[in-house]
Amino acid sequence: MRENKVKAKIRSGEVVLGTFLFIPSPTVMEILGYAGFDFVIIDTEHAPTGALDAVTLENLVRAAELSGTVPLVRLPEQSRVMTQKVLDAGAMGTVIPWIKTKEEAAEAVGDAKYPPEGHRGACYLTRPTAYTSAFTEEYWSDANRNTMVVPMVEDQEGVDNLEEILSVEGIDFMFFGSRDFSMSQGFPVVNNPVTNSTIKRVNEVCKGKGIPLAKFLYPPFQESVKAAVDDGFNVLVVGGDISLLYHTSSEIVKVLNDL
After folding, report:
1. Which of 11, 38, 58, 76 could form a disulfide with 16 if both were Cys (CB 3.0 to 4.6 A apart)?
2. What percent of the chain has pLDDT over 70?
């Protein structure tokens, strides 16, 4: 199995930059990879691609491999079956939404790891083994070492259980879903006092546990990237292909309209 360069960079304290893929297009994936993103998260929770759409997933993963970026997949929910399908398609990790408890986090890690570290089903006739041509005695341990698991905490229960969640062995970094959290607290916007104070608390817990918290970046990027790095974040995420396309396009239109 290929070495996961994102996992290696995080382990060494380097800054990594990623984004989400909502448009189910290998071409778009290639563009993001050639642009230089360290990782791209294929979204199967909100985007058209489904976690069990193995043909589309394989083509997206191929495009990621070709263009030099690490493909991860956001699942619709914690699921052993869906984890199996996306990893057998060649994804190098899973992002799991709505993690609320230590038990759910442990199950998500177990879904992604072969025994004895987990309970992922073993098959050597898949893309990660190059259809047996790259299968070796070390494959299973290599896969466990290079496969990433990233929980998303998105409600108060998850925040309350965060220390226990992050105590699970095998978590590489985590997301805090500030938008879903805000809505669950009755706020239509993310910038509110409850969410802002919760983000600070989440960041403190992550630092205490040695688990990076992903930092979302917003335009103007020259300012947000510098601020994030200065604040000590080393996993940076730009919203997604759709938001990048919309932002650039609308900025060009604005320039013309302001003339």
Report:
1. 38
2. 100
Interatomic CA distance for residues 90 and 87, integer angstroms: 5
* pLDDT level of residue 2 (50, 70, 90 thresholds): confident
**Residue 183: CATH number of its domain:** 3.20.20.60
46 catalytically annotated: yes
Residue 1 confidence (pLDDT): 79
Burial class of residue 12 in the structure, from the number of CB atoms within 10 Å of its CB (0-12 exposed, 13-18 middle, 19+ buried): exposed
| Nearest by Cα to 238 from 37, 43, 27 | 37
Q: How many domains does the chain have?
A: 1
* Average pLDDT along the chain: 96
pLDDT of residue 241: 97
Q: How many angstroms separate the CA atoms of 25 and 33, rounded?
A: 13
Q: Please indicate, yes or no, whether the overall pTM of this predicted structure exceeds 0.90.
A: yes
CA proximity to 61, closest of 114, 1, 113: 1
Q: Alpha-carbon dihedral of residues 34, 35, 37, 43, nearest 10 degrees?
A: -80
Task: Identify the active-site residue in 46, 201, 207, 226.
Answer: 46
